[in-house]
Structures are given as structure tokens and as C-alpha cells.
Amino acid sequence: MFRRTFWFGTGVAAGVWATTKVNRKLKQLTPDSLAATAANKALDVGTRVRDRAVGFALDVRDNMAQREAELDDALGLNAPVDGELPAPRHRAAIENRNDPKSVVDVRTTYSYNRNEDH
């Protein structure tokens, strides 16, 4: 009699366990549950992609700043600046206002005839 009761109890426990397992799986396979699971996975993937993209952008920015500093050093843009200004440049030709040859009549030299262009 004890054996029958043991096997009966074991069968009931196995039936309850199997029913619970099947019901959980059926709830997971409903359309609402599938949509929620897909949405959660999409959010997780989006978060991971965004984190990696932000990390990549920060790496690019750091490397860009480093390369810019290297180029500035190579071009001498980071060299200390002296307090002196460069010497003033002189004109190649200095006009003499007293010389009649240097006085130019603007009307005769720069006359414009609109028919000359055609």
C-alpha cells in the first residue's frame, strides 16, 4: 500500500510540474509576450550600440586632438612668441609728387568705353 501511495504522489508531482512548465511556456509564446521580449532585446541592443558608438566617437576625438597637437608642433605653431614685431616693409617704388611724370590723369589713363568689350 505504501508503494502505491508513493508512486501516486510521484505521478501527481510530475503532473503538476509538467503542467506548470507547459503553462509558463505558453505564456511566453503569446503575441504580447513575444512583442515585449523583442522590444526589450531591441532596447538592449540599441543601448549597447549607442555605448560603443559614443566610445568610438570619444576615441576619434582624442586621436584627432593628439594629431592636431603633433601637426602644431611640426609646423611650429606652439613655439614661444617673441615680444618684437617684424620690421616694416618698404614700398618697392616711392612716388614723387613733385615730379610731373609721376602725376597721372585718372580720366585719360583709365577711360572706360563700354563698346570696347564687345
Describe what this molecule looks like in 3D.
It is a single chain. By secondary structure, the chain is mainly alpha-helical. The protein contains 3 helices and no strands. The longest helix is centred in the middle third of the chain and has 45 residues, at 31-75. The protein is elongated. The termini are far apart.
What is the strand and helix layout of this fold?
Elements: H1 2-28, H2 31-75, H3 106-109
Q: Gist?
A:
This protein has helices at 2-28, 31-75, 106-109. The protein has 118 residues and is mainly α. Residues 89-118 are annotated as: Disordered.
Quaternary = single chain
Order of helices and strands: HHH
Rounded to the nearest angstrom, the radius of gyration is: 45 Å
Overall shape: elongated
Q: How large is the share of residues in beta strands?
A: under 5%
- How many DSSP E strands? 0
Output the number of helix runs: 3
Largest beta sheet, briefly? none
From the N-terminal CA to the C-terminal CA, the straight-line distance is: 126 Å
Uncertain runs: none
Which whole number gives the mean pLDDT? Answer: 81
By helix and strand content, what is the structural category?
mainly alpha
Helical percent range?
55-70%
